[in-house]
Amino acid sequence: MADHGQVEYATATGNDLPAHEATYKNFILLAYVGCCHVASIVIGLAIVGTTSHWLVAVGLMILASIVAIHGLATGSRAPSAAMLVFSFLALALTTAG
Protein backbone atom coordinates (compact mmCIF):
# COMPACT_ATOMS: atom_id res chain seq x y z
CA MET A 1 0.00 0.00 0.00
CA ALA A 2 1.03 3.57 -0.54
CA ASP A 3 2.59 5.46 2.30
CA HIS A 4 0.32 8.30 3.38
CA GLY A 5 3.07 10.32 5.00
CA GLN A 6 3.97 13.93 4.45
CA VAL A 7 4.66 14.94 0.84
CA GLU A 8 8.39 15.24 0.30
CA TYR A 9 8.25 17.89 -2.42
CA ALA A 10 6.55 20.48 -0.22
CA THR A 11 9.26 20.23 2.41
CA ALA A 12 12.24 19.54 0.16
CA THR A 13 15.10 22.01 0.20
CA GLY A 14 16.41 23.49 -3.01
CA ASN A 15 13.14 24.33 -4.76
CA ASP A 16 14.18 27.11 -7.09
CA LEU A 17 10.97 28.64 -8.41
CA PRO A 18 12.64 31.65 -10.13
CA ALA A 19 14.83 29.27 -12.15
CA HIS A 20 11.77 27.24 -13.15
CA GLU A 21 9.93 30.39 -14.22
CA ALA A 22 12.94 31.61 -16.22
CA THR A 23 13.18 28.25 -17.97
CA TYR A 24 9.46 28.36 -18.79
CA LYS A 25 9.79 31.92 -20.13
CA ASN A 26 12.70 30.86 -22.35
CA PHE A 27 10.75 27.84 -23.59
CA ILE A 28 7.76 30.00 -24.51
CA LEU A 29 10.07 32.44 -26.34
CA LEU A 30 11.72 29.58 -28.24
CA ALA A 31 8.35 28.11 -29.20
CA TYR A 32 6.98 31.48 -30.36
CA VAL A 33 10.05 32.49 -32.36
CA GLY A 34 10.40 28.97 -33.76
CA CYS A 35 6.78 28.84 -34.92
CA CYS A 36 7.05 32.24 -36.58
CA HIS A 37 10.30 31.18 -38.25
CA VAL A 38 8.85 27.93 -39.56
CA ALA A 39 5.74 29.76 -40.79
CA SER A 40 7.91 32.27 -42.67
CA ILE A 41 9.86 29.46 -44.31
CA VAL A 42 6.64 27.70 -45.31
CA ILE A 43 5.37 30.96 -46.81
CA GLY A 44 8.64 31.22 -48.73
CA LEU A 45 8.10 27.71 -50.06
CA ALA A 46 4.56 28.69 -51.03
CA ILE A 47 5.96 31.63 -53.00
CA VAL A 48 8.24 29.27 -54.93
CA GLY A 49 5.46 26.75 -55.47
CA THR A 50 2.91 29.20 -56.76
CA THR A 51 4.93 31.84 -58.60
CA SER A 52 8.50 30.54 -59.03
CA HIS A 53 10.00 33.73 -57.58
CA TRP A 54 13.12 32.03 -56.23
CA LEU A 55 14.98 35.21 -55.34
CA VAL A 56 12.14 36.57 -53.24
CA ALA A 57 11.68 33.24 -51.47
CA VAL A 58 15.37 32.70 -50.71
CA GLY A 59 15.71 36.28 -49.49
CA LEU A 60 12.66 35.82 -47.32
CA MET A 61 14.06 32.63 -45.78
CA ILE A 62 17.46 34.21 -45.08
CA LEU A 63 15.83 37.27 -43.54
CA ALA A 64 13.54 35.08 -41.45
CA SER A 65 16.55 33.18 -40.11
CA ILE A 66 18.35 36.40 -39.20
CA VAL A 67 15.24 37.74 -37.46
CA ALA A 68 14.78 34.47 -35.55
CA ILE A 69 18.38 34.55 -34.32
CA HIS A 70 17.96 38.18 -33.29
CA GLY A 71 14.71 37.42 -31.46
CA LEU A 72 16.28 34.54 -29.54
CA ALA A 73 19.38 36.58 -28.68
CA THR A 74 17.47 39.62 -27.42
CA GLY A 75 14.42 37.85 -25.98
CA SER A 76 12.01 39.92 -28.05
CA ARG A 77 8.94 38.54 -29.80
CA ALA A 78 8.07 41.60 -31.89
CA PRO A 79 10.63 41.07 -34.69
CA SER A 80 9.34 37.55 -35.31
CA ALA A 81 5.75 38.75 -35.52
CA ALA A 82 6.77 41.55 -37.87
CA MET A 83 8.67 39.06 -40.03
CA LEU A 84 5.57 36.88 -40.25
CA VAL A 85 3.48 39.86 -41.38
CA PHE A 86 6.20 40.76 -43.91
CA SER A 87 6.15 37.18 -45.20
CA PHE A 88 2.40 37.31 -45.74
CA LEU A 89 2.76 40.63 -47.56
CA ALA A 90 5.47 39.15 -49.78
CA LEU A 91 3.20 36.20 -50.57
CA ALA A 92 0.30 38.52 -51.39
CA LEU A 93 2.42 40.76 -53.61
CA THR A 94 4.08 37.93 -55.53
CA THR A 95 0.85 36.04 -56.18
CA ALA A 96 -1.12 39.15 -57.11
CA GLY A 97 1.18 40.23 -59.89
Give a description of the structure.
The protein is mostly helical and 97 residues long. The chain has a domain of 61 residues. Helix content is 81%, strand content 0%. The protein is elongated. The termini are far apart.
Name its key features.
97 residues, mainly alpha
Give a concise summary.
The chain has 97 residues and is mostly helical. Helix content is 81%, strand content 0%.
Detail the topology: elements first, then pairings.
Layout: H1 8-11, H2 17-51, H3 54-74, H4 78-96
Helix pairs in contact: 2-3, 2-4, 3-4
Mean pLDDT: 89
Q: What proportion strand?
A: under 5%
Overall morphology: elongated
Number of helices: 4
Global Rg: 21 Å
